[in-house]
Amino acid sequence: MANTNRKNLGQTGTGHFSCISALHEKTNNLLLMETARFKYNSMWFNLKNVYDSFIALDSSTNKTRGFMLCSKYF
Fold this sequence. Notes:
Blueprint: E1 2-5, E2 15-24, E3 29-33, E4 43-46, H1 47-55, E5 66-67
Antiparallel strand pairs: 1-2, 1-5, 2-3, 3-4
C-alpha cells in the first residue's frame, strides 16, 4: 500500500492511498491500483516520481508519507 502525494504524480489533491501491484523493470515503472476509481484509473508511474511522492512532507503532520508492506504467512 502506497501513501502518495498526488501532486508529485501530476494529479489533483494531496495525500492518497493506492495499492502497488506491479513493477515493470525495463521501464522502471510501478502500477498503482486506484482506490478512487470515480476520479482516476489505475496507472503506471515512474519509480522516481512515486518515490518523490513518498518523501513529500504532509502539511498537517510535517512527516513524510511512504508505503506499507503487507504479507500473509502460511
